[in-house]
Write a structure and sequence with these properties.
The complex is a heterodimer of chains A (291) and B (154). Chain A has 291 residues and is α+β, with helices and mostly antiparallel strands. Chain A has eleven helices and 14 strands. The chains are: A alpha+beta (291), B alpha+beta (154). The complex binds flavin-adenine dinucleotide and FE2/S2 (inorganic) cluster (FES) (2 copies).
């Protein structure tokens, strides 16, 4: 690796000051599972890594059934899925946190890093979108909160401005009769990048036979992770069953704008969107009915 | 080259080292501390040959910066055998011929130890799932999985 600096600030203000001073030449270091490889392989030219794991807010994980979940941007995946209450309350998020890389990667990789890396195939992003997570962003003394679906703007690009960092992700508390799920398709059993990923969340009415709200998000079918509002809206329109699920799946397929690459052709990816949206909806509905 | 002074615990011993800020933990172990048990396979997080335990968690040391381990606890393959003899995993790998070239072996043993520490009686599926981040180009994995299951019975 080229000669670089390493800083380990203890406060958000200190971290933002370095990010502001160095601009593009500084990058946050969370779990390092993307950034260390990118710097080593000369895919990012930086002068300083800003290790954010010593900043208390960025490393904290808090769940309160009435307030919801706050995930510090650098909290590694294992702390999320090993937390029993969180695992019970957000199984759709755990689906994704527990499949990133292998055990070694999950010891380090964070949801904040997955999001800030802004890969179209980032596995935790569709469930975060489906679960209506918001990003808490801080820079130059100002704080703003934005919905996750707005955060990624292009492959590898986010809405973070100079001197800004992601501090936390906030998820609302799970509502009664709600359920979520994430599935991805990869050609192997483990350790690969999603050919397509689908994250969904549903909220059922009292009868549990109808859906009163639904959100469907996709990975690896567009330059950024995609929220398909019309596919979710289609589920709210009638008794839940195969016909309605098929309709949502075909609307998701219509919204997907995949490319062809070594992992799969555009046509194959469109097909997979249909398959995965149906499967995840069935799992999410099942979870909402039994949860 | 910018350097930093780091104090950490390695295999139970307090250790100080001076490392370049750009060095990974793997480079520090191998090039600074001469602990060459952890291997560099891919240097990008895919193969597990560099596995160590960092504060008890299994990590790829090629994806940790040396400067990050200040005040941490690092366990490497060198700390697995005791003066009394080999660890049951090492014995089972040896007896079951679970290695050929041996490059992947330290990583597999450190990873398998992490598994057995948290789940002393894993199923074959659990072993295969847990070891998915470790690659071996020689053995075809079967003997490795059987050696881990064997060690779990002893
Ligand atoms: C072997 C291997 C397997 C993998 N498998 C998967 C997989 O299955 N699915 C998947 O989605 N990804 C996978 N990845 C990619 C990677 O592990 C994930 O994207 C992970 O979530 C990144 O998190 P991190 O904490 O390691 O991020 P880092 O590498 O620390 O950071 C990633 C990027 O985000 C920036 N950043 C981090 N935190 C912040 C912040 N708070 N504010 C501003 N910017 C920030 C960094 O500067 C960097 O550019 C894999 C990687 C490897 C090496
Ligand atoms: S050398 Fe670290 S994972 Fe391959
Ligand atoms: S024994 Fe050669 S790579 Fe595993």
């Amino acid at each position: 690796m080229k000669d670089i600096d390493y800083a380990a600030p203890k406060t958000i203000a200190e971290a933002c000051a370095i990010l502001n001073e160095k601009g593009d030449k500084a990058r946050c270091l969370a779990g390092g599972t993307d950034i260390i490889v990118q710097v080593r392989e000369h895919r990012r030219d930086i002068d300083v890594l800003v290790d954010i794991k010593h900043i208390p807010q960025v490393n904290a994980l808090n769940y309160d059934p009435s307030k919801g979940l706050t995930i510090g941007a650098a909290v590694p995946c294992y702390r999320i899925y090993e937390h029993k209450e969180i695992a019970r309350a957000y199984p759709g998020l755990i689906d994704a946190a527990a499949l990133i890389g292998g055990i070694q990667i999950q010891s380090r990789a964070s949801l904040g890093g997955n999001l800030c890396n802004a890969s179209p195939a980032g596995d935790t992003i569709p469930p975060l979108i489906a679960l209506e997570a918001t990003c808490v962003i801080v820079g130059a003394g100002a704080m703003r909160e934005v919905p996750v679906e707005k955060f990624c703007t292009a492959p590898g690009k986010t809405m973070l401005g100079r001197g800004e960092m992601l501090v936390q992700l906030k998820l609302p508390p799970p509502k009664p009769r709600s359920g979520a799920a994430y599935l991805r398709f990869i050609p192997r059993n483990e350790m690969d990048i999603a050919v397509v990923g689908a994250g969904v969340a549903v909220l059922l009415d009292d009868s549990k036979q109808r859906c009163s709200a639904a959100r469907i998000a996709l990975a690896a079918v567009a330059p950024t992770p995609l929220l398909v509002l019309e596919a979710g809206a289609a589920l709210v329109d009638g008794a839940l069953g195969d016909a309605l699920i098929d309709k949502a799946a075909s609307l998701a397929q219509a919204a997907a704008k995949p490319i062809s690459d070594m992992r799969g052709t555009a046509e194959y990816r469109k097909h997979l969107v249909g398959v995965l949206v149906k499967r995840t909806l069935n799992i999410a509905i099942q979870r909402a009915r039994t949860g | 080259m910018k350097k930093i002074h780091v104090t950490t615990t390695i295999n139970g011993k307090e250790t100080e080292f001076l490392c370049e800020l750009r060095q990974s933990l793997l480079e520090v172990l191998r090039d600074v501390l001469m602990l060459t048990g952890a291997k560099e396979g891919c240097n990008n997080g895919n193969c597990g040959a560099c596995n160590v335990l960092l504060d008890g968690r299994l990590v790829n040391s090629c994806l940790v910066m040396g400067a990050e381990v200040q005040a941490c606890n690092v366990q490497t393959i060198e700390g697995i055998a005791t003066p009394q003899g080999l660890h049951p995993l090492q014995q089972a790998f040896l007896e079951g011929a679970a290695l050929q070239c041996g490059i992947c072996t330290p990583g597999f043993i450190v990873a398998a130890k992490a598994l057995l520490d948290q789940n002393p009686k894993p199923t074959e599926h659990q072993v295969r799932h847990f070891l998915a981040g470790n690659l071996c180009r020689c053995t075809g994995y079967d003997k490795i999985v059987r050696a881990v299951l064997q060690a779990a019975t002893s």
